[in-house]
Structure of Putative threonine synthase:
Amino acid sequence: MQWLYRCPACGRTYPIEPGRYLCDHCAKEQRPDEPLRGVLECTWEGGNPEPGSVPLPVEERFFPPIPVGQTPLWAPERLRAELSMPNLWLKDDTCNPSGSYKDRASWLVAAFARKFGIKEIVLASTGNAASSMACIGAAAGIKIKVYVPKSAPIAKRVQILQYGAELIEVDGTYDLAFDQSLAYSNATGMLSRNTAYNPLTIEGKKTASFEIARDLAAGASRSAPRYLAPDHVFVPTGDGVIIAGVIRGFEDLVRLGWIDKMPTIWAAQAEGSSAIARALATGRFEAVPSNTIADSISVDIPRNGYFALDKLRRHSGRAVVVSDAEILEAQRYLSRASGLFAEPSSACAFAGFLKARAELDPNAQVVVMLTGSGLKDIKSAALGVGLKI
Ligand SMILES: *Cc1c(COP(=O)(O)O)cnc(C)c1O
């Protein structure tokens, strides 16, 4: 297999090597108040991987020794009964090493750094990407420098320092942190793990789709194929990298002939940060200051907006928008009726599923992606249960 980057907008290709982030041609038209232009996609030519493996652009031997992914797919019996949805599944990515889905991307970026002998990685984050990169960097022996808004939940900032990363607290939003971290990596040549900007952050996030399809097949009858596509997947969405990665995973499975259809992918967003849902309806992105309790999906400009929108449109993706009150309610309900305590962003996916449920076939195979642990943001969860802290 020969791996390369391809620009989905213009088709230009580039080698996968240090210093390459966006498409030179398409990134020229970038305006400051819109999603990134020229976001690159990984692809391969020549030959296919063995069934059972995931096609990835870095060889397995470079992956750091830390157990990322292979997370459980829960069959939540009480929820299934209460909601009359007998094929509801919860993909539990709260049990990744740093407690979030971001570890899947950090793992691939760290493997890339090891392959090329890179010793330092820098990134901006609302908290989870930074605590994730700090965690994986600790396992891999790579120095990590992170730019995070001062307002990020305390647990995420503590994690960053626990893992020994350098924390720069930015007096402003994630968007400012993004610009500052890029200024640093551009000036020093350090590897950037900024979400969407580094194409490996999208590619790394596709692995969950392979696990879901494999685990659904394992639950089906013996004569079933080794992979089975779900009907619907609900994905909490901020910058649009997780959702793009999840779609990429299912696209790969279709390309390989391992599944026979794409699932319907739902972008679940908070009312106070719903740029991708709005763009899906209007075709345009407007920069609107974000305001939601779900900090991990609170973005003014969704960095991967164009790329994610293109993928959603190509596969008839949907969007569902919920209020902060619905998020907190769903967070409590999910915890009580399943035993899975997820952070508000993840609860947004569950709230989105609850809202869209009336439109779904009751027998559909539905997967809700739970991307971060509830213990990462105790302040919001305390609000939900009426505890003063
Ligand atoms: C980052 C994150 C998301 C959203 O992912 P995007 O790629 O920004 O859309 C959702 N949930 C959690 C827990 C996250 O950390």
